[in-house]
């Protein structure tokens, strides 16, 4: 299909969600996808994207990105250590060299930046309170972008995303393994978004995102984590996970899993209306109705 003259979009961090986004946007835009692996070129081309070889951990490899696209969708996570997101900093340095080209940046962050609120509701105006190093790196990325964008005349939309799920991203293996959940009295609220819904929201932000705006890209549900596991278990005809007190559970689950289980917040999504894209799956329960009970 001829794409000359089309608006150019660069996707940075083109994993599962990035592929879904590229497939949608390639119908009406010239889509580029940054990858550090030549082995992914065929996969990216299959969804209509043009692969660009580069590595966010190697700034000298990013020269092709300068002046490449009018819109940048930044999905790449930070590196795994430290409190600063060096990858975002490297990206912004190269984008600044073509800042007359870039007019919009969409950054997919995490609701983990809010930290633990003991089950209280949080909104986009709630001050960030990151507790894990992972969340602190995300706050650093957000802060870098929020300083950089207005200084370069760029409209920035930050989408804060909770737990992403899909048919192949449900905790079925965890449930089959019999990994316990927290007792109801100590359980934490968890927040979710279905993967296709998230991809649609990112695409909507290309057209409707307000400048310098934060939006919670979640379904607004108020389900506790153990109840979420129970819903999935019931949908697949599995035994529900056993429940344990926090003191016991912390000793047997991974530090990564425990970091999610110890933070409780109910994330509101009233600003989603700005993106003019209703969710297809306003709750996990609605999605589970659509899949087979026999995986």
Model description:
The structure is a single chain. By secondary structure, the protein is α/β, with parallel strands linked by helices. α1 packs across α6 (195-208) and α3 (86-96) runs parallel beside α4 (133-151). The mean pLDDT is 94. The chain has a domain at 8-165 and 192-220 and 266-279: Rossmann fold. It has helices spanning 16-25, 41-46, 86-96, 133-151, 172-176, 195-208, 225-235, 246-252, 255-261, 284-288, and strands at 8-12, 30-35, 49-53, 71-74, 104-110, 121-122, 155-161, 163-165, 181-182, 189-190, 192-194, 213-216, 223-224, 243-244, 266-267. This is Nucleoside-diphosphate-sugar epimerase. One of its GO terms (cellular component) is cytoplasm.
Brief summary:
The chain is built from ten helices and 15 strands. By secondary structure, the chain is of the alpha/beta class.
> What is the overall number of helices?
10
Question: How many beta-strand elements?
Answer: 15
Sum up the overall morphology in one term. globular
Report the top-level CATH class of the domain at 8-165 and 192-220 and 266-279.
Alpha Beta
**How are strands sequenced across the largest beta sheet?**
3-2-1-4-5-7-12
Q: Under the CATH scheme, which architecture of the domain at 8-165 and 192-220 and 266-279 would be assigned? A: 3-Layer(aba) Sandwich
- N-C termini distance: 37 Å
Report strand %: 15-25%
CATH fold descriptor of the domain at 8-165 and 192-220 and 266-279: Rossmann fold
Kindly name the structural category: alpha/beta
Helical amount: 25-40%
SSE ordering:
EHEHEEHEEHEEHEEEHEEHEHHEH
The CATH superfamily title of the domain at 8-165 and 192-220 and 266-279: NAD(P)-binding Rossmann-like Domain
Low-confidence stretches: none
Radius of gyration: 20 Å
**Major sheet:** 7 strands, parallel
The averaged pLDDT comes out at 94
